[in-house]
Backbone:
């Protein structure tokens, strides 16, 4: 199964640390992310953060700050980091390039996990779900969607299990609940697998129908969780609640129209 989208992650670093930064870049790509790096010889430590880079930072949601002795000495890097930290609703991970690789890799994995979401829903509800997927893609999320991504000839069971296992380990599991999804064998299979793998706090129920209208069909594990109301099918109205659940709240962020 392919990802619908890959997580875009801005990497702040000193140009004096290129060897270590390339190792970080390779790890991000291996984890399914798209690292954004600027290698600009035209900027010196006495330059302000270039306007183009500031605009790129404003447009992004996930940041990996590569700290080091070189980064601390660079006014350019420190200005860049200060600008990143001034924004609202961003996920920021700091790694020390002078630390052990295992420690750095833990930070990289943590950030990618916070930028990844698996979509479980009935194909009947695809139009409503597509709007949510598009909104998260605009905010740099990596998204997994079996109904959208499976290629001809792929084995559904194996591919879905693989993607769910990845979501359970590394990302969020978005369960879009409607009368149709609760009667879907495939959605039930996805949920059972996710629960068996201990999806835990990363399970987010999104209600496409009012809970009262679902009656006894609504499973206990969904009743017991704080759910997102999407029964009005208005993605703009629902999105702030979902972003808060994903710990990315851009209602006050700058740089967006």
Residues:
């Amino acid at each position: 199964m392919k990802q619908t989208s890959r997580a875009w992650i801005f990497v702040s670093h000193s140009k004096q640390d290129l060897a270590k930064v390339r190792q970080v870049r390779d790890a991000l790509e291996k984890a399914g992310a798209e690292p954004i790096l600027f290698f600009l010889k035209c900027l010196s430590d006495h330059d302000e953060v270039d306007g183009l880079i500031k605009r790129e930072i404003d447009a992004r949601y996930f940041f990996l700050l590569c700290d080091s002795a070189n980064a601390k000495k660079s006014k350019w890097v420190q200005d860049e980091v200060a600008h990143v930290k001034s924004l609202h609703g961003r996920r920021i991970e700091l790694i020390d390039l002078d630390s052990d690789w295992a420690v750095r890799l833990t930070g990289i994995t943590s950030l990618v996990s916070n930028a990844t979401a698996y979509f479980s829903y009935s194909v009947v509800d695809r139009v409503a779900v597509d709007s949510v997927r598009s909104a998260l893609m605009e905010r740099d999320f990596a998204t997994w969607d079996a109904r959208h991504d499976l290629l001809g000839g792929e084995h559904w069971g194996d591919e879905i299990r693989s993607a769910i296992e990845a979501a359970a380990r590394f990302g969020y599991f978005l369960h879009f609940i409607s009368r149709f999804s609760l009667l879907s064998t495939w959605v039930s299979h996805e949920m059972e697998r996710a629960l068996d793998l201990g999806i835990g706090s990363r399970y987010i129920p999104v209600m496409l129908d009012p809970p009262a209208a679902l009656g006894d069909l609504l499973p206990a594990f969904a009743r017991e969780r704080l759910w997102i109301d999407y029964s009005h099918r208005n993605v703009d109205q629902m999105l702030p609640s979902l972003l808060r659940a994903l710990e990315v709240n851009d209602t006050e962020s700058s740089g967006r129209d």
Q: What stands out?
A: Residues 149-154, 251-257 have pLDDT under 50 and may be disordered.
